[in-house]
What we know:
This protein is of the alpha+beta class and 280 residues long.
Amino acid sequence: MAARVSKESLEHESTADSGHSLFFYGTLLHPAVLKRVLGHEGNGLRHQPALLDGYTRHHVRDNTYPAILPWDEAKELFDGTSEPHLEERNVRGSLVTGFSKLDVELLDIFEGDEYERRLVSVNPLADSQPLSVAAADAGVLFDPISNPWETASVKAHTYVWVKPAKLTLDPAIWSYDTFVRDNLHQWIGSDASRESYTEVDRRRDANNQSIVSGAGQSEATEIAKIVQKLDIVDKRDEAQPPEALSKDSGDRKEKYQFGHAMLPHFCLEKGYVNLNHGTP
């Protein structure tokens, strides 16, 4: 099941003039995981470190990926004690821009129904760069920041946890550095679990089949046109008197032509060469 989508997120998505922007904070911080989900190299995508204020990021129980919650909802995880410091009540992540509608659909599927895609405001922490130049071994590099509120906030979609927090999340703050060191191998490379991408791959395959099907329909239309054309020629020939097929000046010139003259009536690529001449 795909992630839910909030009304505000849907409305913003429908009015986007050019690509969609998403804020990532977990496994998708790493470019290799993101590209695996999208099924392409991310050409045209740009990313930059960013900060989401008023949220906290927690371990999903018995899993290696995290979830975020607004701080007002996350409070119940701490029972009034050992709460994170004020500066920890925000989430550092990556703002990525330029996604297509299909990209967003695949991301919704990857996240699943444990999350809801919502529209939030994030503060960029540095200039954006092409995703292709992202650090291959660590993804977004988080340099120390002094005042993240110096930059204007921007709107972006992100995925917020919707399952009962106390039953599914641990209060410990999830660390991206620890994830890269200890668990990234489960998401990329030879050790990666295909189960994490099963639904995404199925949706992408369905889209590819749709494209092929569309091409097949186009070819069928062209064939129908050719058949119709030949049928017209046949009917025209049937109406011709027998003398139309008689010899002319000692040479037999048939109404029907053969060899290269017939190529336009077959579904062959331009420049087609028949190598099957029956010769040894």
